[in-house]
Amino acid sequence: MDQAIGYQIFSDNPDPTVGAPRVALLRDAMARHGLDGFIIPRSDEHQGEYVPPHAERLKWLTGFGGSAGMAIVLKEKAAIFIDGRYTLQVRDQVDMSIFDAQHLVDEPATRWIEENLTHGARLGFDPWLHTAAAADRLRKSCKKAGAELVPCTDNLIDEVWADQPQIPYGEVIPHPLEHAGENHEAKLARVSDILEHADVHAAVLTQPDSIAWLFNIRGSDVSHTPLPLSFAILHEDGHADLFIDDRKLTPQTRSHLGNKVTLHAPGRLKEALDELGAAKKEIRLDETSAADWIRQRLVDAGAVIRAGDDPCVLPKARKNEAEVAGTRAAHVRDGAAVSRFLAWLSREAPKGQVTEISAAQALENFRAETGTLKDLSFDTISGAGPNGAIVHYRVTEATDRTLNPGDIYLVDSGAQYLDGTTDITRTVSVGEPANTPDLQDVRDRFTRVLKGHIALAMARFPNGTSGSQLDVLARNALWQAGLDFDHGTGHGVGSYLSVHEGPQRISKLPHNVPLDPGMIVSNEPGFYKTGAYGIRIENLVTVTAGEEIDGGERPMMAFETLTLAPIDRTLILPELLSEDERAWLNDYHARVLETLSPLLPPEDLRWLEEAVKPV
After folding, report:
1. What is the mean pLDDT of the chain?
2. What CATH number corresponds to the domain at position 129?
């Protein structure tokens, strides 16, 4: 196998020792600014999951490399806040003598502020890096503590980060109409109608994936997601202002945007917000995603804020026919690449020479050999044995494990293609499952995860049903054994955009966004035994109008499974599956074989034929 083409790196080894000297630098800066504390979120000005290197301030300060989190540094103490995905990872990457680890949900930063800030304390924050809604919560907590939340014009981390990377200027290109399915002029008109019906004059758009979707453009400012970091103002008449660095735009992109879009330098945003305020415009602003700085600028200028969802979010989530057809095609190519990888793994891993890194590189290469790979959709989670129990494990040279015969290996990966974004997890035994006292438990857990996956895949539900109403289907088989998993069951996925896209999701957390036709969401129940192994089975599905049910009184929605790759039969306890569950699995495997056979070389095809034999 040739060397991987390099969409991911593995040399970024955790170094907890960075915390002490860097916190000392930050505390010196706090003293210079007359502050008693400073908040460091893992975010940039767009409040998204995907941030460029210069915005990785939390990682620089603490060593923590997760995709969500926050730190608060006071004069004498500090805390880092992470969610359930990172409770193990944070202890490997962060100096626990400097930071107390707190659960982002169970022990939120707001409560910590109330308990730890002294009366009269001044807690600094960068208003560009916190949403308006989050800043309101922070202000409330500071007030309860008798303290003050102080907006900082300059970010204190930027003051002390000597070798901070430069702001990116990635090229922005048009997204082909054959993949978008609708030209951007039509989208502008459609979304401006939403503003008109909401009786507002304009909307400020701050989420780069919304801007990419609305204008049918894609960028390269962050890894793994084709985002053009930029801001936009959409007016009720269908005209839009796009605030983007001139260096990113090709002549083709300028021509593509046309006369409905006026281009501005990013620095012009302040003036444009002031103009909206001076005209007393009523402005739609998503306070859960827009920076507090933007809201405050509008309010100070005299604008009337009408809080509401980003008007692009729902139209973007409801994929059109071209987008669904594109993601189907992408999943066929991707499924062939993943199946070739699994066949390769079955031959090579039992020899004891494959590591977590070399496996991830091999999978990347198989995808590259399709000739259509644009990037990975995230860093591959390649975890053998106990590393598989770390939900968002990211292998590095320091943590790299060899896949040994009998290990349980979890690989969660995805790819970006022009016609679709993929995300798939498979859990496999390296060679024959190890005949140990734990084998029966492993197979029991694997089969219960599979039962949950199948229950969700087979679900029928009425129009208006949200993912929180379906989440129990994926957990029920685990619950019956006193087991569960601590992450969501499903997240939305974009069309050659973000692998994590809202507003739809399948989760315990209450939410009321209906699962509408065209939405793409993951189906990924799991089980994790700390220090031993992890199990997750993930396919992407799209919401469709279900077939008519005999005797039914209401039309029902359904899921169409998009992902195509075999599920490891050697880890299944067949006696735990119902006849309907067996039928689903066997039908799915028959479809995998029929669809992928023409794309596989003979050796891999022989492996697949064996892998998908009926259970």
Report:
1. 95
2. 3.40.350.10
Tokens 């909401």 belong to residue:
198
Q: How far apart are CA 299 and CA 293, in angstroms?
A: 10
Domain region containing 37: 16-160
**Is there a contact between 198 and 308 (Cβ–Cβ < 8 Å)?**
yes
Query: What pLDDT was estimated at residue 547?
Result: 87
For the residues 254-258, what does the mean pLDDT come to?
97
Single-letter amino acid code for the residue at 396: T
Same domain, 230 and 347: no
Measured from the Cβ of residue 588, the count of other Cβ atoms closer than 10 Å reads 20
Nearest to 165 by CA among 52, 50, 8: 52
565-573: average pLDDT:
97
- Tell me what percent of the chain is helix, strand and coil, each rounded to the nearest 5: 40, 20, 40
Strand order from edge to edge, sheet including 424-429: 381-384, 408-413, 424-429
Cis peptide before 503 (omega within 30 of 0): yes
Q: Is the pTM of this model over 0.85?
A: yes
* Token pair recorded at residue 388: 């598989």
Helix (H) or strand (E) run with residue 259 in it? none
Alpha-carbon torsion angle 420, 11, 172, 275, nearest 10: 110
Q: Are 57 and 72 in contact (CB under 8 A)?
A: no
Structure tokens at 512: 């009321």
Q: For residues 224 and 260, state if they share a domain.
A: yes
pLDDT band at 111 (very low <50, low <70, confident <90, very high): very high
Distance CA 17, CA 512 (A): 44
What percent of the chain clears pLDDT 70, i.e. is strictly above it? 99
Q: Which residues pair with 39 in a beta bridge?
A: 72
Residue 259 and residue 60: Cα distance in Å, rounded? Answer: 42
Measured distance CA(470)–CA(448) in Å, rounded: 17
Which whole number is the average pLDDT over 505-521? 96
279 and 386 housed in the same domain: no
Taking Cα atoms as reference points, which of 489, 408, 390, 493 lies closest to residue 449? 489
Residues 279 and 219 in one domain: yes
Q: Is residue 48 part of a domain?
A: yes
User: What's the average model confidence in pLDDT over 107-115?
Assistant: 94
Is residue 460 located within the same domain as residue 473? yes
Do 359 and 275 share a structural domain?
no
Start-to-end C-alpha separation, the chain: 32
